[in-house]
Structures are given as C-alpha cells and as structure tokens.
Design goal:
The chain has 21 helices and no strands. It is mainly alpha-helical and about 500 residues long. The longest helix has about 50 residues.
Length: about 500
C-alpha cells in the first residue's frame, strides 16, 4: 500500500495534535503555581505521569530518527547501550534517591551545596547544565524540524517557531505540573505511534516478524567481529557498552537537573522507585521496537524490494521515509506527531529545568531572600527568554552551515557535563570528601576527558569507557585531595551512603 507522502488528512491530524497539546498544557496550568509549586509541583502529580515524562525527556527526536537507522545499516550492537538501564536504575534507587528524598532537595545542585558546604560548586554545576541545555534545545528544535520540512513541504521556520511557541506557552504558565502532564501525553502518543508502525511494517514484509527474526540470526543482531567481552576496557564490547552506558545514564539520573527535577516532585521513595522501574521498562521497550523496525526496514527495502527508491535512502532518514510513503493516510500524521512529541517533551523539559536551575541555583545566590512571587516571575521570564533564544539559534542553523560546529559545541558540553556525575559520586560514596576534593575532582576529570576526546585518536579509547574513566578520576583525585587538604568538618547528616540505613529506618518527614 503505497501513497504519495504527506497528505491533507495527515496535516490535519498534526494540527489537531498540536492544538490538543497546547490546550492540555493550559488546562493543567489553571491553578496559579507559585514558588515551590511552580518548580516542584503541588503534590498531586501521579508517579506514572512523572515516569512517562522521564522516558519522554530522555528519548530525543534525534534518537527517534537514528535508532532504526542503526539496525537498518548494521547490527543491534548499539541496542545494548539501552540495557545500561539495568546498571543505572539499581544504583540510583539504592544510593541516590533515598538521600535526595530525605533532604527534599530543590535542584540537583542543591545537593552539592549541602554536601560540600559550597555555593560555588552549586553555581558551577548549574552553569554547566544551563549552557549544555541551551545547545541541546536548539539542536532538538532544528534537526526534527528540518526532517519534517522535507517530508511535509511545510517551511522549516514555521515548524521551529510553532514547536518552540507551544512549549514556551505551557512551560511559562504552569511550571513543572504542565510540563509533566504534557510530557505524559506526548510519551503515550510516541509509544502508541511507534508500536503501530512496527506492526504495519511487519504486515508489509513477506514472512512478517518471522522473517525479521530470521534476518537477525544472520549477523544482523551481532556482527561476526563484534565482541561480547574484551578484557581491555578501553575497547568497545557488548559488556563495556552496558556498563559504560549504564554509568552515563546514572550520571544523568543523579546530576542532570532536567531528570532530577522529576524526582523532586515527591519525597516518597516507593513512588520514586516505581518511577525508575517503569521508566527503565519503557525505555528498553521503545529501543527494542526501534531496532526491530530498523531490521524490518532492511528486510523490506534491501532484501525484498531493492528496486524501491527507499532502498537508497540514507540510514537516518529511512524510518521517516517509511512513515511518509508506506503507512496509511492518517497514520503518517500520527507518526509525525510522535516525532514532534519527542521534540516538544525534550524542549519543554529543557525550558522548565533551565528556568528552575537559574532561579534557585544562580540568581538566589546573587539576590538573596527572594520571595516566592519574585522567584516564580523570574523563572517565567527566563523560560520565555531561553525559549526565544533557542528558536532564533535553531532558525539560524536551518539557514547556515554551522551544524557541524554546533554539534562540536554540544558534544564538548555534553562531555563536560558528564563529569559532574563523578563529583556527585564523591559526595555520596565518601564521608571524607570535602569541597577542595570536589573542585579537584571536577577540574581533573574535565581535563582528562577533554584530552581523551580531543587529544587522542578516536579509536584509542571507546566512547563507552568515558563515564567509567571520568567517575574513577573524580573519586581517586577528589578523595586524595580531600585527605591532603583536610578540614575539620564531616559530611552533613543524610548526605552519604553511610546514612542510608538510618534513612530507611526513619519514617519521619524530610529534612529541610
């Protein structure tokens, strides 16, 4: 069943979806949110809504377009990175979330200040996050909008502005509550859309799912040269991907404000654990669906229909091509809405988390004793300003050749942000770690990782080893410096793993 691509019905479905998301965001922002309610919610958000929001935030539209391309052009080797969840989730649940819940932290970097008694560390952590998010949000708006513009014929400027404007409106008006509920809707649309497209693809293939699984058994699951285990941990293997991606994901869970902000919506560790497990299940499910789609596209275009124009499409565009030309009228609109959903959920989360971190981690240090009304007003203005800035940068990217330079910037900032996880680990896992050690950990791990990334040949060290190296350097250097520059202070109560037995035994209210 072929068709001519994006139809009027598909366009109507996309428009109705966008209007519905905007309406939902405004609906959930009816109650005036001020102060902590704007940043952390009003306590009425169900855990499953937050869980789907985490899932939607972590799944960027870039992943939506590239994951199927990975298994279309190669094997399932990168799928094993998704299994890093089985490493990240138990670590976060056992060692970090009980402490965050007990302290009732306002932001991720609030923990750094409390643990190390250092406002400077809190500000540095927040600044790194804010700069990283500015770059990420611009790319998140540009890349999927460019892909959708090619498929739909809609001007890329319009797609960027509409995406940004809708996210700004409900982020500005309703704070984290509106963001979480709209993320939930976007996540459900994404899950349903991708799952349905997989079944339509299997229907088009002679032999259906059976043929997809047969193909996977013929070096399309793992290539003959792809190692399951390599004793050299600096080289890529399935084992190293699971561990490395797991540590990287764990760093995001514990040190990236866009994720940690979801954890601050409740101090109930049982709900937090449910969030984590559900998020892990959804993430592995959707990754598996994407990789099955990629292998299915390989079977359909490369094996069974090599004369089809789709057989020569670039790997990162093959899924979008299938959506436009093989799905029934109406389903194409739903799937394009799902791509837009992946973009908007990541974007709205970025806007809200940047506004929260700037207000609570940076501005409050500069301007002390701000009341709730002023904090909320400032956060809204920041959300608006950051959104407009990201829209402008995205439009500039769409009309220039700076994409590669911008990706370099994003890669660099992502690398630096990743080392924050090591500083958090120093705080959580050692009682003797102090602020001097924390600064040393941050500086040394940043220097080592920048050297590895840009000073060594790309093949010298696997990217899946990066998180393990940065955390190791942070812990070793940070601990040694803490011992050498000893100060007569001990870790505050409820800030290290040694306090977890008492935290679990104590059912009292959170410590403020």
């Amino acid at each position: 069943m072929s068709k001519t691509g994006f139809t009027t019905i598909d366009f109507a479905i996309l428009v109705v979806y966008l209007i519905s998301v905007l309406f939902a965001g405004l609906l959930f922002s009816k109650k005036e949110m001020k102060g902590k309610e704007f940043f952390k919610g009003d306590g009425t958000i169900p855990w499953y809504v937050t869980s789907v929001s985490i899932f939607a935030t972590l799944l960027s539209p870039i992943s939506f377009l590239t994951l199927p391309g990975n298994s279309f052009a190669g094997s399932w080797i990168l799928w094993f990175a998704q299994l890093g969840m089985i490493v990240a989730i138990p670590i976060a649940m056992r060692y970090f979330l009980p402490i965050y819940a007990k302290l009732d932290i306002d932001t991720a970097y609030d923990y750094l200040e409390r643990r190390f008694d250092s406002k400077g560390l809190r500000v540095i952590g927040a600044l790194m996050f804010v700069i990283f998010q500015l770059g990420r949000m611009s790319i998140i708006m540009y890349l999927p909008s460019a892909a959708l513009a090619t498929l739909t014929g809609i001007d890329v400027n319009i797609l960027i502005i509409v995406m940004g404007a809708i996210a700004i409106v409900y982020s500005y008006t309703g704070g984290i509550k509106s963001v979480l509920w709209t993320d939930f809707i976007q996540g459900v649309v994404l899950l349903i859309g991708v799952t349905i497209s997989l079944f339509f693809l299997a229907r088009d293939i002679d032999g259906g799912f059976g043929e997809i699984f047969n193909t996977m058994g013929n070096n399309k699951f793992l290539g003959s040269e792809e190692a399951i285990f390599n004793p050299n941990f600096l080289k890529t293997s399935v084992f190293m991907m699971v561990i490395g991606a797991g540590l990287n994901t764990c760093s995001s869970y514990v040190s990236s404000q866009d994720i940690v902000q979801r954890f601050t919506t409740t101090t109930d560790t049982k709900k937090l654990n449910k969030m984590m497990v559900t998020n892990g299940v959804l993430s592995i499910f959707i990754a598996t669906a994407f990789y099955l789609i990629g292998t299915g596209l390989y079977v359909y275009y490369k094996v069974q229909n090599p004369a089809d124009p789709g057989a020569s499409i670039a790997q990162d565009q093959i899924y979008a091509y299938f959506i436009a030309y093989r799905l029934p009228v109406g389903m194409t609109g739903i799937l394009l809405a799902a791509i837009y959903a992946a973009s908007q959920s990541t974007l709205s989360t970025g806007l809200n988390s940047v506004a929260t971190s700037w207000t609570l981690d940076i501005q409050e240090v500069i301007t002390k004793d701000m009341d709730d009304k002023r904090k909320t007003a400032l956060a809204r203005y920041i959300s608006l300003g950051v959104g407009i800035f990201a829209i402008v940068i995205s439009i500039i990217m769409a009309h220039s050749n700076i994409q590669s330079a911008y990706e370099f910037f994003n890669s660099f900032m992502g690398l630096i942000l990743g080392v924050l996880g090591g500083t958090f680990a120093l705080g959580i896992f050692t009682k003797k770690g102090n602020k001097y050690g924390a600064y040393a950990a941050l500086i040394s791990s940043s220097a080592v990782m920048v050297f590895i990334k840009y000073g060594l040949p790309a093949e010298a060290v696997s990217i899946w080893s990066y998180s393990m190296i940065s955390i190791f350097v942070s812990l070793v250097v940070g601990y040694i410096v803490s011992l050498l520059v000893s100060v007569k202070t001990t870790a505050p109560k409820y800030t290290t793993v040694s306090d977890i037995p008492e935290i679990k035994a104590d059912s009292s209210t959170p410590v403020n």
